Amino acid sequence: MSEEKPVFQISPEMFKTLTEFQEQVDEQNAKEAAGIENTEDLPKKAPEIKTERLGQD
Prior knowledge:
2 helices, mainly alpha, about 65% helix
């Protein structure tokens, strides 16, 4: 039997970039879903959301 190889590999730096991009996309989708237009106060709220998500894992 041949050893299974990953389809592709990414560097830790690229993984971090992709993760950050996905968080931005998730945040934007959440804003749109909530119908929020003025998001000046959102950065203050975002760390709380991330902390809660990480705490649930």
